[in-house]
Amino acid sequence: MRNFCLPNYIGPFTVTVLQGCRNYCAFYLWPLPENEEGNQFMSCLQLILAKLKSMERVTRVLVHLSKENTVPQCAQFVQSVTGHFTDRHKDQVQVGCCLDDNRFIVYEQCEGRGGAGVVLKRASFCPLKHLSKPEAAALPVEVRKRGVDVGVAVLLQSADRRLLLTRRASGLRIFPNVWVPPGGHVELDEKLLDAGLRELREETGLKLNPGDISSQLLGLWESVYPPMLSRGLPQRHHIVTYMLLHTSLTHLELQAALQPEPAEVSGCVWVDTDIVKAIVSAVDGAEDPETLPPNLPQTVSVTEVFPDGTLGVSALPLSVLCNRAPADGEDVERVSTGTKFALELWLQTLELQKQHSVCEEGRRRTGQGP
Asked: Which residues contact 185 (CB under 8 A, 6 or more apart)?
């Protein structure tokens, strides 16, 4: 039961809302004045009821879609979010997004809601791009009714331009043994940054305060598991928000504070730009032979996370991080396709920063800038 105190102009009484039953509410009111103040109160009451209804209904943050300035509607599990905003043959589109009242709203950038657009992308082999109507109908009812979940993944950039990747534990139900940035689901009433920092802390033990970092939204990835129809019908459907966090600490300082959770993380690795370029060059779904640049090391140093929480060091062949997603059979240890997308966006931000620095230096030398 919830009590709401009313404005003074209504009088000394309280609205009582009974929430024990799903479909019923009771109100005890004195007669309302038939004037503007009474109308204002009724408007407030309607907002309260709408909020209570929303609170009763929402158990997860789900994706909602708005196209052509329509009211946002909950995305269906079997529909491709990317395909909703672009031609069915295209896999990338520029959209707007916001987190509002426990709904992650994706909308056409042209709607004029303000703010810069962001890239939304799916894999060329995304199961929901190729799912037939009979295959969709074959999905269990509880799967078809799930909606599209929202995840956040954190690309933590150290002061010396290294990124942290973590290997998902072998016991996890989806994408086991796959390398990804720290991340997970966005919980109710969380902001994206808060969710990212929480997941970073829970998975790696790194405790960063919002005031100690700068952040930006890199892009959105439509993630489906299994990632290809050849490996089974879809079981999970997410929009993953990739966030880039800049910290003033070096990767060695951050490494010293690592305390990974073994139930979620089995390994950690810091990658530099050269290794990232090699990873993103191994495009999932491509058929060209995999070749590593000759100037790169054959192995990378990995922090192994043992079941009891202790840490060790091992040498992982760089070729493992450059594995491609197999079309059938068991998955392999690799960097996820969505992570490759985010890493490519990270390289683009570094290139833009480099170009900006060159321009600023040119202005300084010609006396056109500070």
From this structure: 60, 61, 149, 150, 151, 152, 195
